[in-house]
């Protein structure tokens, strides 16, 4: 319970920090005779007008600003979760990759982190977990810290996004493990770790750098490290083949896998989806990936969906997921109300407001109400 309260307090603090940052940015813009409406516009002059136009239009539509921020951090910054438990780099994306919006930590990820910490509705202890559309991978990396059996982090195959994901994997799991060993007097000089550091500092990524014959040994070294830290990073475009994602379990758990398990059971127990439903055209592909990855024996999909883009995309996804083609069983766990700027109500008072809400109320929400709301669902294979 203490961990859960700490995570809730962290979500509230993030909202305050984001609003303070917004005010400072607006003040700077006004001093320079400008006005801005973009959360992630950079002081760098390398961003094109086309990129700025896209961000302005997107953020106007979802209301990133206002009294209820829906996202935290800025492109190229570090987001600190849990007083140093995780330090997450936010991808410094350009061009078309901006449309993926992977360079924020969304409120839905913070809410999912609370559920991981609590361990009740979302039990990941000893489970095989995969996060799709991971972005900075707060939920997935937290699962590793909280005892998941193995975690695979995935996102769209954009070089900048994947390289940033690998960097967060390395700094929060591999490097932190090395530092822990060093404090015990154990020095690590393994050549594969040296190579990994160089690779992370280069313009390439592991996911796209291990196809040559010369890379085979590096590939094996890297996978051994993945096994040791119980976590892997892979690129994945929804709706495409999942063999490599399932291979992460077979390779990294090969020595301890139960030979009596069926092929179905060598799949993932939990799939995490944090703010992945806002593009309706991707729903079928996303569901195809989920169906191919999820164990039919005990598998569950845990979703946290910010309502800032409206309830319609969520309704469309759930209609597909529970329809004849996929047959998932849906359970609404919570309609979470997030604190607004200047919020005076306690966390428990906000929870009481949440408990009074029903799905049918969501269609009537104002923009401000939508920005303050995160929906929490569970999907499981129907029996």
Automatic annotation (TrEMBL):
GO cellular component terms, A-Z: cytoplasm
InterPro entries: Methyltransf_16, SAM-dependent_MTases_sf
Gene3D superfamilies assigned to the protein according to its UniProt record, in alphabetical order: Vaccinia Virus protein VP39
Domain of life where this protein originates: Eukaryota
Protein name: Methyltransferase-domain-containing protein
Organism name: Lobosporangium transversale
Upper taxonomic lineage: Eukaryota, Fungi, Fungi incertae sedis, Mucoromycota, Mortierellomycotina
């Amino acid at each position: 319970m203490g961990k859960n309260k700490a995570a809730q307090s962290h979500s509230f603090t993030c909202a305050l920090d984001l609003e303070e940052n917004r005010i400072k940015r607006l003040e700077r813009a006004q001093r320079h005779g400008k006005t801005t409406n973009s959360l992630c516009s950079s002081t760098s002059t390398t961003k094109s007008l086309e990129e700025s136009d896209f961000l302005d239009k997107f953020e106007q539509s979802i209301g990133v600003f206002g009294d209820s921020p829906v996202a935290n951090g800025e492109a190229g910054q570090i987001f600190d979760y849990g007083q140093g438990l995780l330090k997450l780099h936010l991808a410094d994306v350009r061009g078309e990759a901006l449309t993926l919006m992977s360079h924020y930590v969304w409120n839905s990820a913070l809410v999912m982190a609370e559920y991981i910490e609590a361990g009740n509705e979302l039990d990941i202890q000893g489970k095989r977990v995969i996060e799709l559309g991971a972005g900075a991978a707060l939920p997935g990396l937290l699962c590793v810290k909280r005892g998941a059996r193995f975690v695979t982090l995935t996102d769209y195959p954009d070089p900048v996004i994947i390289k940033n994901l690998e960097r967060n994997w390395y700094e929060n799991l591999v490097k932190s493990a090395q530092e822990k060993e060093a404090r015990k007097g154990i020095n690590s000089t393994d050549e594969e770790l040296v190579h990994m550091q160089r690779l992370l500092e280069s313009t390439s990524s592991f996911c796209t750098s291990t196809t040559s014959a010369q890379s085979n040994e590096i590939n094996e070294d890297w996978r051994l490290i993945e096994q040791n830290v119980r976590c892997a990073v892979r690129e994945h475009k929804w709706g495409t083949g999942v063999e490599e994602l399932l291979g992460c379990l077979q390779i990294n758990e090969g020595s301890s896998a139960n030979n009596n398990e069926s092929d179905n059971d060598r799949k993932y127990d939990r799939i995490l989806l944090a703010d992945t439903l806002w593009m309706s055209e991707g729903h079928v592909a996303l569901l195809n990936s989920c169906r191919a990855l999820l164990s039919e024996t005990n598998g569950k999909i845990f979703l946290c969906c910010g309502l800032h883009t409206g309830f319609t995309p969520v309704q469309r996804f759930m209609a597909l997921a529970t329809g004849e083609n996929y047959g998932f069983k849906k359970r609404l766990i919570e309609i979470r109300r997030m604190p607004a700027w200047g919020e005076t109500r306690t966390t428990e008072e906000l929870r009481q407001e949440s408990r009074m809400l029903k799905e049918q109320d969501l269609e009537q929400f104002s923009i401000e109400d939508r920005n303050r709301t995160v929906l929490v669902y569970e999907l499981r294979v129907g029996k």
